[in-house]
Design a protein that fits this description.
Blueprint lengths: L31 H8 L3 E5 L4 E3 L8 E4 L3 E6 L8 E6 L3 E3 L3 H4 L6 E6 L1 E6 L1 H10 L1 H18 L8 E5 L4 H12 L5 E4 H4 L5 H7 L9 E4 L2 E3 L4 H8 L13 E4 L3 H12 L4 E4 L26 H14 L3 E3 L4 E7 L2 E6 L4 E4 L2 E3 L3 E3 L7 H4 L4 E2 L4 H7 L4 E4 L3 H12 L4 E4 L11 H9 L3 E4 L4 E6 L3 E6 L3 E4 L2 E4 L3 E3 L28 H6 L13 E3 L11 H20 L6
Parallel strand pairs: 9-10, 13-14, 13-19, 14-15, 19-30, 21-28, 22-23, 22-28, 23-24
Antiparallel strand pairs: 1-8, 2-7, 3-6, 3-8, 4-5, 4-7, 9-11, 11-12, 16-17, 17-18, 20-29, 25-26, 26-27
């Protein structure tokens, strides 16, 4: 295949990195005392020019402390572009970025250019540092996060390159996965770089066809018909059990409830694994603006809130794996076994199910045709780019629909909000109702239904029973969700599929296991001992972000009690 030219970034050349202005967050200047304390967590080793402290693609690489000498951070050649030196690191500095904490394979290399002494900080010692020294922990976290953010717009972004068409739901899924897992990447929409009539020529020149899309280049190597799972495997983000040992807690679902449960479990000493079928965040990550969450008087985007929570989980040692879908949960002699979609298993002493709910859809012709190319279940910057300044329709009468309508309108989209009921305040917070009714960019249509869809490859028009056919580049659907519990067998639930917990479980659903235990289900515990539920998946939950956070953290208290009753934790 001929070398590929990049259409989004300027050509980069090899050579010495330019001297950047000093960034006190990315490259903090440590005091003598701070540096001495940091060195206590590492093991010294001599380094020589030409040595690599870690290489692109290496998994489980370590934080490196440079006592003396010099190291350059390099993006290695990718096939169509050459090597690039990102920056140079000198004495009393440390090497690494956020991937050190989440197990992601290195996407850059560290090459020694001057001899000296480096200290290698093992994963175990890094976790100990973060638990024992709050000051150093804060310095490291801020630096690792800032470095990840800085790498997004430079040559490192080509280490993961996604190519596809915005009309493709598969390409949209890849981009959503990369953005929600905070991966440094570049996404190329073919329709932005070449006229759609020439797609075939563009692909043929590179040895591909439309059937190969979407394509993910990982370190320059293409993955055809790429999926989030395939990319995660290549990047080291899929679950890999290193031993047959049990973990103390497996949290299934990475929304606010799941993240809160994982953070509290890990911070209280439980060896914790967090799984999500897509990426951490759940529906909250798709919320454009949350205005009633404690401590954020000016509102906060779902992405920002989830991003900070994910970083907090990594700080406390949670192992986060996504996409990683659980398909069954069964009792075994010493605890529980979670089976994943690919057949791998996790042995765990307890589990908290926070798998949330799946989006409901409208029963309309061509609905599946337009998913990803006009029909969306979230209103974030990713979706906004698909409909920028074009008319849209939002369907739903709860807070998520109101927030989406205001976000889209504020970014230049004329909005029609379609509500089935006749009273907007029945399910929506009053502050949202007031703002919607006062916003001239939003037309609220109560007692209305979407009855038809029309378009070519993209959604172009929507039929609304009260007003007829209207132009619409996007239809944003917020009509609720079904609990994601069909994968669970033998766990009591209500007629709608939500999991019953605690005193809500009928006595006839409690079997012999409970009689042997000699106790009743604890708060948030399901009919299966040591399996708990929190958030949207639980019967009686409030379906609010703050409530989900409270439930997830509260469930951990019950986990401790349940584990103590059978011999404690490791």
């Amino acid at each position: 295949m001929p070398p590929e030219k990049d259409e989004t970034l300027p050509a980069a050349s090899a050579g010495a990195a330019p001297e950047p202005a000093h960034d006190p967050v990315q490259s903090p200047r440590l005091t003598d005392d701070q540096w001495a304390r940091l060195l206590e967590f590492g093991e010294p080793e001599e380094i020589e020019p030409g040595d690599y402290l870690f290489r692109t693609g290496q998994r489980d690489y370590n934080l490196m402390l440079i006592e003396s000498g010099q190291v350059e951070i390099v993006r290695e050649p990718l096939g169509w572009v050459g090597e690039v030196v990102i920056t140079t690191i000198g004495p009393r500095s440390f090497l690494g970025e956020l991937g050190i904490l989440n197990g992601q394979a290195a996407f850059l290399s560290a090459r020694v250019t001057e001899p000296g002494i480096a200290y290698r900080v093992s994963e175990e010692n890094l976790r100990r540092l973060m638990a024992e020294d709050d000051e150093l922990c804060d310095i490291l976290l801020h630096a690792l996060w800032a470095r990840r953010e800085a790498l997004r717009s430079g040559p490192a972004a080509l280490t993961l390159k996604l190519v596809g068409s915005k009309a493709s739901s598969e390409f949209l899924a890849l981009r959503r996965f990369a953005e929600r897992t905070d991966l440094v990447h570049t996404a190329i929409d073919l329709e932005d770089v070449v006229d759609k009539t020439h797609h075939a020529d563009y692909l043929e020149e590179r040895g591909f066809t439309k059937a190969d899309l979407p394509i993910a280049y990982v370190q320059g190597e293409p993955i055809l018909r790429a999926t989030p799972g395939l990319v995660a495997d290549r990047l080291g983000l899929s679950y890999q059990a290193s031993t047959d040992d049990f973990v103390d807690l497996t949290v299934i679902g990475g929304g606010p409830a799941g993240l809160a449960a994982a953070i509290y479990g890990a911070s209280e000493g439980l060896r914790t694994v967090l799984l999500d079928a897509v990426a951490p965040g759940g529906q909250a990550a798709a919320t454009s603006r949350i205005e009633n969450f404690l401590g954020f008087p000016f509102g906060v985007t779902g992405r920002a809130l989830i991003g900070q929570a994910s970083l907090q989980a990594l700080k406390f040692g949670v192992r986060v794996y996504a996409p990683c879908e659980a398909v069954s949960l069964t009792t075994i002699d010493e605890g529980l076994e979670v089976t994943l979609r690919d057949g791998r298993t996790i042995h765990t002493r307890s589990a908290i199910v926070t798998s949330g709910a799946a989006y409901r859809t409208l029963d309309l012709d061509r609905w599946n045709d337009f998913e990803g190319s006009g029909i969306f279940y979230a209103a974030t910057p990713l979706e906004l780019r698909q409909v920028m300044e074009s008319p849209v329709v939002v369907v739903g009468g709860a807070n998520s629909a109101g927030q989406a309508a205001l976000y889209l309108a504020s970014n230049g989209c004329p909005v029609r909000l379609v509500v089935r009921g006749d009273d907007l305040s029945r399910r929506m917070s009053s502050y949202l109702v007031t703002r919607l009714l006062e916003d001239p960019r939003v037309e609220v249509l109560t007692r209305s239904h979407v009855v038809g869809l029309d378009g070519d490859r993209y959604l172009r028009r929507v039929h609304i029973d009260r007003v007829g056919e209207v132009e619409a580049r996007g239809l944003f659907c917020f009509i609720g969700a079904e609990p994601a519990t069909s994968w669970l067998n033998g766990v009591d639930r209500d007629p709608e599929g939500f999991l019953r917990t605690g005193v809500d479980i009928p006595l006839d659903a409690l079997g012999e296991d409970w009689r042997r235990l000699g106790r009743e289900p604890l708060p948030f515990e399901t009919s299966l001992p040591r399996v708990f539920a929190a958030g949207d998946v639980r019967r009686g939950s409030m379906k609010r972000v703050a409530a989900a956070v409270g439930e997830g953290s509260s469930a951990v208290a019950s986990v401790h009690r349940a584990l103590a009753s059978v011999g404690g934790v490791s």
